[in-house]
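Consider one such protein record:
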Amino acid sequence: MNSDKSGKLKLDETKAKVIDRRIGCFVEKTNQNKLTEAIEFDGISVCDSELSAVLKRNDCLHGHQTLGNADSLNDIKAEIARFDTLRTLINKVVLARLGYRGPYVGYSARQDSGPFPVRNLAEELRSEGAAKEQSQD
C-alpha cells in the first residue's frame, strides 16, 4: 500500500479488485445454501443427517483431520456414516439430474450385516413440477 499526498492510503489495483470481489460476496448466498438449493432443485428432500453432512463437508475438503481426536469405535462409525451420507446424496443428485428415476444403492442406510439396501429414486423425489416451481420463487 502506498499513500498519496493527502496521507490517505492507496491500494494497488490487484488488492482493490480483491476487496471489491469480497464486498460483492456479502449479498450472495452461502455455499451451504447454494448446495442445498441445488440438491432440492430436482425434488430431493434433504433430511437432518444429510444437512449435517453438507455442513461438515468442508472439514474434508479443506484438509482438516476429521478423526484426529477419535478415541473410540463410535467416532469412526460416525465419520463413516457421514461419508456414506454424502456419497448417497451426491449419487442421488447426479442420477436425478440425468433424469434417472430407478433403483439406487442407499449407502447412508448402513446395516449391521448384509448388503446396502436398494431404494427407488422416483419414490423419494417430490413431484418434479412442484420442486422446480418452488426453486424459481
